[in-house]
Amino acid sequence: GPPGPPGIVIVEEITENTATLSWSPAADNHSPISSYNLQARSPFSLGWQTVKTIPEIITGDMESAMAVDLNPWVEYEFRVVATNPIGTGDPSTPSRMIRTNEAVPKTAPTNVSGRSGRRHELV
């Protein structure tokens, strides 16, 4: 039959627009797992959506991947679904809810100057 649900998704690392995730493998139910599909849910999404990942294709022997193109400072939950030649199994237990990091300005503020008459003014 189709695979069982993968183990709970663990959030390993978070940036403003990526999340590195790992999980324990699903039971293949006598038909090897061909791929995993990573899904995310946020307050702004309509239910669970497949997210873009690195690598793009998560093969059945992998137990981690990075979700990319996330939005900064948004709460996400993640889950994983396994697929084998028979079909797609039930999703994993969702990860804990995480918040992506705040977006940092790409350039330093232009009005900051290190040239000051009196050194103790720079605090």
Offer a quick outline of the entry.
InterPro entries: FN3_dom, FN3_sf, Ig-like_fold, Striated_Muscle_Regulatory. The protein is mostly beta strands and 123 residues long.
Counting helices, strands and paired strands, the structural category is mainly beta
CATH architecture: Sandwich
CATH topology: Immunoglobulin-like
Determine the number of helices (DSSP H or I, runs of at least 4 residues): 0
Protein architecture, described:
Residues 5-103 form the Fibronectin type-III domain. Residues 84-123 are annotated as: Disordered. Keywords: Repeat. This protein is mostly beta strands and 123 residues long. The chain has one domain: Immunoglobulins (Immunoglobulin-like, Sandwich), CATH 2.60.40.10. 0% of the residues lie in helices and 33% in strands. It has strands at residues 10-14, 19-22, 35-41, 49-50, 53-54, 58-59, 64-67, 75-84, 87-88, 98-99. The radius of gyration is 20 Å and the shape is elongated. 23% of the residues are buried.
